[in-house]
Specification:
Helix content: 40-55%
Distance between the termini: 40 Å
CATH topology of the largest domain: Dehydroquinate synthase-like, alpha domain
Order of helices and strands: EHEHHEHEHEEEEHHHHHHHHH
CATH superfamily of the largest domain: Dehydroquinate synthase-like - alpha domain
Structural class: alpha/beta
Largest sheet: 6 strands, parallel
Number of strands: 8
CATH architecture of the largest domain: Up-down Bundle
Number of domains: 2
Bound molecules: zinc ion
Strand order of the largest sheet: 1-8-5-4-2-3
Number of helices: 14
Shape: globular
Strand content: 5-15%
Radius of gyration: 19 Å
């Protein structure tokens, strides 16, 4: 049995931000809260989207989204939402503001603690449809959160958990590649490697969903062909447009589930004292996970490695890890966890949390704690 769903209304074109008010009107939203972060405000993107999108310059803005969104930030933004009698949320930014916007919508109508709605704590069945509408406007080409059913949030106790439900998917995604033109090269590369990892991990997931696999391969193709140019020349609109589409496609395939790269980057990203970037973590972990998944691969998985090698330009499937390492070098990504400042003494705890992560069940092959520790050591 396969559950295959595509739900989000997507407006995709350069200049699509001009459609914001029309889309909010169509959703019956008269008083939106903008959820962003300080970098997005400083870059002038909030002011630009309000103006081009036909909204008042007085529209309330929550700009406190942290790099990895937290339970405390959900409550702060929710206080602002209530203080202004808002009736909908516009998430504007990278994955963090978009995930926070989804969580604010959830907690606007759902009682109890945020943790009650975490997927590994049985939250899927508790998340209902009656939530204020969410419009997602990405300013990076990476997370795919604008069409994804998950929000990743770090709870007060330090756990980074997934909040997942079809009702968490934004009602509308406005994908405007012009909003990514100012993204600096390192963030372009890191968020792009997140998108590339989504396409690879969802493609390798053993769940049956051929449409999602086709979308993942097409997205991978676009990202692989354009990530170097988008990083090198940020004003190349063709490259920016292709990267935004590739990231969107990566997000559309989340329904197939991710894999061990994300099982590890979620708990590593929750280490507050290190403040590690999600996409950079994925870039660094991907070669070691590809090598692990290739061992003892089923015939079906081996055939998928052939397809990946063809798209990524690897001479043989066995060269895929080295191909990703070379791409990371070209993009100026760190080459290992040590360069990112990750000490080996966190591995045991990270591996414990990776086993529990919602992405682990859909890794290309079964994986246990000792395997996670070995992958972390290989990436050290
Ligand atoms: Zn990701």
């Amino acid at each position: 049995m396969a559950l295959i769903t595509y739900l989000t209304k997507i407006q995709f074109e350069a200049g699509a931000r001009a459609l914001l008010k029309d889309e909010l009107d169509a959703l019956g939203c008269k008083a939106p809260l903008i959820v962003a972060d300080k970098g997005i405000v400083a870059a002038g993107l909030v002011a630009e989207v309000l103006k081009a999108g036909g909204l008042s310059a007085d529209t309330p803005v929550y700009d406190g989204t942290p790099e990895n969104p937290t339970e405390a930030a959900v409550h702060e933004a929710l206080d602002l939402y209530r203080a202004h009698d808002c009736d909908g949320i516009v998430g504007l930014g990278g994955g963090s503001p978009l995930d926070l916007a989804k969580a604010v919508s959830l907690m606007a109508t759902h009682d109890g603690a945020l943790a009650d709605y975490a997927v590994i704590l049985g939250g899927l069945g508790r998340i209902r449809k009656d939530k204020p509408p969410v419009v997602a406007i990405p300013t990076t080409a990476g997370t795919g959160s604008e069409v994804g059913r998950a929000a990743l949030l770090t709870l007060e106790d330090g756990r980074k958990l997934g909040f997942i439900s079809p009702y968490m998917i934004p009602d509308v995604a406005i994908c405007d590649p012009e909003l990514t033109v100012g993204l600096p090269p390192m963030l372009t590369a890191a968020t792009g490697m997140d998108a590339l990892t989504h396409c690879i991990e969802t493609y390798l997931s053993p769940r049956y969903n051929p449409p999602a696999e086709a979308i993942a391969l097409d997205g991978l193709h676009r990202v692989a062909r354009n990530i170097r140019e988008a990083t090198r020349n940020g004003s190349d609109m063709d490259a920016r447009t292709e990267m935004m589409m590739g990231a969107l496609q990566g997000g559309m395939t989340f329904q197939k589930g991710l894999g061990a790269v994300h099982s590890l980057s979620h708990p590593l990203g929750a280490l507050k004292h290190l403040r590690l970037h999600h996409g950079t973590l994925n870039a660094v972990l991907l070669p070691a996970v590809l090598a692990f998944n290739a061992e003892g691969a089923s015939d079906a998985a081996a055939a998928k490695y052939v397809a990946l090698a063809g798209i990524l330009g690897a001479a043989r499937p066995a060269d895929l890890p080295a191909t990703i390492e070379a791409l990371n070098r070209d993009l100026g990504m760190p080459s290992n966890l040590t360069e990112m400042g990750v000490p080996a003494d966190v591995f045991d705890g990270v591996a414990d949390n990776a086993v529990l992560d919602h992405s682990t069940a859909t890794n290309a092959r079964p994986i246990e704690k000792a395997d996670f520790v070995a992958i972390l050591n290989a990436a050290l």
